[in-house]
Design a protein that fits this description.
This protein is of the alpha/beta class and 208 residues long. It has a single domain, classed as 4-Layer Sandwich (Metallo-beta-lactamase, Chain A), CATH 3.60.15.10. It contains 5 helices and 14 strands. Strand 5, helix 3 and strand 6 form a beta-alpha-beta unit. It is globular, with a radius of gyration of 16 Å. The two termini are 31 Å apart.
Length: 208
Amino acid sequence: MIFEVPVKGYFYENCYFYIDDETKHGFLIDPGAEAKKLLKLISDKGWNIEKILLTHGHFDHTGAVNEIRDALGIPVIAHTNSDQYLLDDYMNLSAQCGSSITIEGVQYTKDGDILALEANPDFKLKVIYTPGHTTDSIIFYSEKDLVAFVGDTIFKGCIGNYKYPGGNLKSLQDSIIDKIFTLPDETMLLSGHSDKTSVGIERQRYGL
């Protein structure tokens, strides 16, 4: 089950629950704001969230992490480059938006890792490194369900912003063409700030 929850902090952002229907265990991806709203939903649904997964370290994707982690006692997973953003309120953009959000003590992951539920090891996501929007950007891909949680790397109809600290247009284009567009065309792409789309639709927009 995929459950999309738009949350509002400084910006609107889409966070996602990826839940195993059989065990009701799952992952929470990019909880950007409204921790109490997300915790209430978890309680109301009877879900057991095993891990918080971050596609990158910008504050609009991490603003509710500390409160939710403290409430549930669960690990936060981010790319090995993530401290560059999570520990620096300039790099993660929170300082420029009137606040200071930092995240300490995350567990690191890297390209090619498999993140599986303890309750059901067959329920899993593959980590794919997609730098360009940030140097720590990753996507989480389910081959079984043909879905990818892509953060801000690509949106419906456009690519991510590469003009923030650490961004790079060439790296972003390479990530999209070489990593995302090599997934099956029917793969659903779920981003942080747009409606869902698919690999096939976005490949056509690129003329590929």
